């Protein structure tokens, strides 16, 4: 049996948010991961998709399909689509709480991300090291010593929000953001680290870059990382970076 604390509220006319907390927390993350899988496995007519975040699950649905289903099945009792979906979600959560959730627990996939640190690929590495009064090698050591859970995907397609970074290398965002950050750049922003999946503006401190493509729109699974994965950063040389990038280009041909 699992006991969870939550609240539900509408997000417009075609979405409901289930909020399980107000802080970034591994336990809440696991509850969100498991509850989302359970709701999706027991979806309702009109269900479209869901988006998980640090503390919430947002469930999107087709209001007209919900209304039509309750009319066709004779279950129409004057409830608005939102009210019917809310009732369903609350009932599903009650069922979820009665289950042995080890049945729904999927092992975490660990994805190794090769990163070339410093130099052209990590122009802010020395600055981060200076900020903390340590060597660049120590920044790399602390950054690669953690295994990072993927809490959510957002900001840009395939961009992972990672937890678990060593607080000893937490560094404030840059006062003046860059207008263009290359795809694959690994950065530190405050107490978070992440990987830019596309070339975008950004204000994080760039400490390295990976040759892996985090977002491939033509692939059957366009994002390299998914919520629930674990990331391990592995340092590589500039030569290894170039070799990996060249292999990936050939594979795309």
UniProtKB/TrEMBL annotation:
Keyword flag RNA-binding: no
Class in the EC hierarchy, top level: hydrolase
Domain of life, per lineage: Bacteria
Keyword Phosphoprotein: no
EC number: 3.5.2.9
Limits of the Carboxyltransferase domain: 6-225
Pfam families: CT_C_D
Keywords, sorted A to Z: ATP-binding, Hydrolase, Nucleotide-binding
NCBIfam families documented for this protein: 5-oxoprolinase subunit PxpB
Record protein name field: 5-oxoprolinase subunit PxpB
Natural source organism: Paenibacillus sedimenti
Gene name of the encoded protein: pxpB
């Amino acid at each position: 049996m699992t006991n969870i604390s939550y609240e539900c509220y509408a997000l417009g006319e075609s979405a409901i948010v289930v909020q399980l907390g107000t802080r970034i927390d591994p336990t809440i993350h696991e509850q969100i991961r498991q509850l989302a899988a359970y709701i999706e496995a027991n979806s309702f007519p009109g269900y479209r998709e869901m988006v998980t975040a640090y503390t919430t699950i947002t469930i999107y649905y087709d209001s007209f399909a919900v209304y039509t289903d309750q009319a066709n099945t004779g279950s129409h009792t004057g409830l608005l689509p939102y009210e019917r979906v809310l009732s369903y979600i609350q009932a599903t959560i009650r069922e979820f709480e009665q289950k042995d959730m080890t049945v729904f627990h999927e092992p975490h996939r660990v994805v190794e991300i090769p990163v070339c640190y410093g130099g052209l690929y990590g122009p802010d590495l020395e600055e981060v090291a200076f900020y903390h009064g340590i060597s660049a090698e120590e920044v790399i050591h602390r950054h690669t010593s953690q295994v990072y859970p993927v809490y959510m995907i957002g900001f840009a397609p395939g961009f992972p929000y990672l937890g678990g970074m060593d607080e000893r290398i937490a560094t404030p965002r840059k006062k003046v953001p860059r207008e263009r950050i290359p795809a694959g750049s690994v950065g530190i922003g405050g107490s978070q680290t992440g990987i830019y999946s596309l070339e975008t503006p950004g204000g994080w401190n760039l400490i390295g870059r990976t040759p892996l493509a985090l977002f491939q729109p033509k692939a059957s699974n366009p994002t390299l990382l998914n919520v629930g994965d674990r990331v391990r950063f592995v340092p590589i040389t500039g030569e290894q970076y170039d070799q990996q990038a060249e292999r990936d280009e050939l594979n795309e041909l």
